[in-house]
Amino acid sequence: MRVDGALRVPGDKSISHRALMLGALGDGVSRVRGVLRSLDVESTAGVLRALGARIPALGDEMVIEGGGLRGLRAPTVDLDCGNSGTTTRLMAGILAGSPFSARLIGDASLSRRPMGRVARPLSAMGARFAFEGGGEGLPMTVHGGRLRGLTWPMESASAQVKSAILLAGLVADVPVEVVESAPTRDHTERMLLGRGVDVRVEDGVIALVPKATLAAADQLVPADPSSAAFFAALAAIADDGELALDDVCINPTRAGAFRVLRRMGAQLRYDDRRLAGGEELARVVVSPETLRGTVIDGAEVPSLVDELPVLACVAACAEGETRVTGADELRVKESDRIKAIVENLRAVGAVAEELPDGFVVQGAGRRPFSGSVTTHGDHRIAMAFGVLGAIPGSRITIDDPACAAVSFPTFWEELARVVR
Ligand code: S3P
Predict the structure, then answer these.
(1) d(Cα 186, Cα 202) in Å, to the nearest integer?
(2) Is the omega angle on the peptide bond into residue 56 within 30 degrees of 0, that is, cis?
(3) How far is 215 from 197, CA to CA, in rounded Å?
(4) Residue 369 Cα, ligand 1 centroid: separation in angstroms?
(5) Sign of torsion, CA 73 74 78 84?
(6) CB-based contact 123:164 (threshold 8 Å)
(7) Which residue among 88, 140, 309, 394 is least crowded, i.e. fewest CB within 10 A of its CB?
């Protein structure tokens, strides 16, 4: 397989969710450029609109008239978070500090995901959570209002939980401190700082001192490194050629997959590094080389947590063993990704085994793969195996390729365009 060309993958999902939320809470007009237009971000836009925020249709240049930190109104409908964990958990923080009740619902996959991790700290701040059906999944009603400040040692590494606590402190006007067990993506901190909020980060402690207002700010959304990773992986397992990925966010808390691809032997470099929109961006240029297996442990996982499905597929094309541990969070993503990765690798002819907190892949070099992939509706499983399916001679059928629309609606067209 030869890859060739340049592409700009769509806007970063994490930053897009936050840009809409902070735009809605800002004082005055915020312009958002390059927002991701995908189902997950539509979920955030829909939830904010149901709370009275003036969010226009998702588009390349959005103008959001913020209603201020106390501008949201009690919804008259359930808040439908679709498939989106980020929508649910970050909005739980905003709702905890808002003086009304709201019921959050989601699809079958989202409804199975644990929400106790946000309910516990937000309850400690004084919000009340009601779960239906005894578990800690959606539907969930948040009774928000006046909160007290909080210092919270994180139970596990999660940017969503950290962000929920910071947003609750912001909206309720109380100081909060989050003690991280490992560094996780820091977009919320960067974006709050860029909007005049006093956020201090020192020795793994993130402290927010509230302010009565949130400044409006323009936001440029860089290309999503998690989407770019599929194409970086494709270029790494190709036989020939080079792919250039433009405007990719290379924030170190997000760039673990690029570091791992390099460690596995791929040629990967950052050209045209620059700062824009509070983040570092680069043109990520990737070409193939002989790949070898690697070891990924818990310390590295947060920086590549969403990229593990595609890295597992790359591992199947490498020489030797790849071992991933400390990744138990994969069990509670859009699917049980440890199971989904291993079962699907086996289904297409690779050798892989589950670990309680990760997986092992025995790579056997570049070769075609054939078989049927069950995505469980998980966008990243569909796209990861789409990359393997692009190897000449592969015959992989994917049960639900359309689920890529959760984060990357144009994935299949872009894939067809760059493979020669
Ligand atoms: C996200 C954080 C991560 C990641 C998710 C997006 C975010 O989840 O997997 O896709 O935008 O904060 P966790 O916070 O559960 O690790």
Answers:
(1) 13
(2) no
(3) 8
(4) 30
(5) positive
(6) no
(7) 394
Q: Where do the domains of the chain lie, and which CATH numbers do they carry?
A: 13-211 (3.65.10.10), 222-418 (3.65.10.10)
CA dihedral over 82, 87, 92, 97, signed as positive or negative: negative
> pLDDT digits over 181-237, tens only?
999 999 999 999 999 999 999 999 999 999 889 999 999 999 999 999 999 999 999
Contact 268, 236 (CB under 8 A): yes
| 334 CA to centre of ligand 1 in angstroms | 11
Yes or no: say if 246 and 324 are a contact pair by the CB < 8 Å rule: no
For residue 405, the SS3 value is helix
Name residue, tokens 């025995």: 362
> DSSP string spanning 239-250?
SEEEEEEEEEE-
226 CB near ligand 1 (under 6 Å): no
pLDDT in the model for residue 133: 80
Question: Which residues carry out catalysis?
Answer: 306
Give 363's contacts (C-beta < 8 A, 6+ positions apart).
291, 292, 293, 315, 316, 317, 318, 319, 320, 321, 322, 350
Claim: this prediction has a pTM higher than 0.85: yes
357 dihedral zone (left: phi>0; alpha: psi -120 to 50; beta): alpha
Residue 305 CA: which ligand 1 atom is closest? 9
306 Cβ inside 6 Å of ligand 1: yes
**Side chain identity at residue 306, one-letter code:** D
For residue 312, what are its two tokens? 């597992």
- B/e letters for 79-95, b = 16+ CB within 10 Å, e = fewer, are bbbbbbbbbbbbbbbbb
Residue 159: which residues within 8 A CB-CB, separation 6 or more? Answer: 14, 184, 185, 186, 187, 188, 253, 302
Per-residue pLDDT band for 134 (boundaries 50, 70, 90) equals confident
Closest CA to 15 of 245, 188, 226: 188
* 14 close to ligand 1 (CB < 6 Angstrom): yes
Two tokens, residue 99 = 């003086």
- CB-ligand 1 contact for 86 (6 Å cutoff): yes
Radius of gyration of the chain (CA): 21
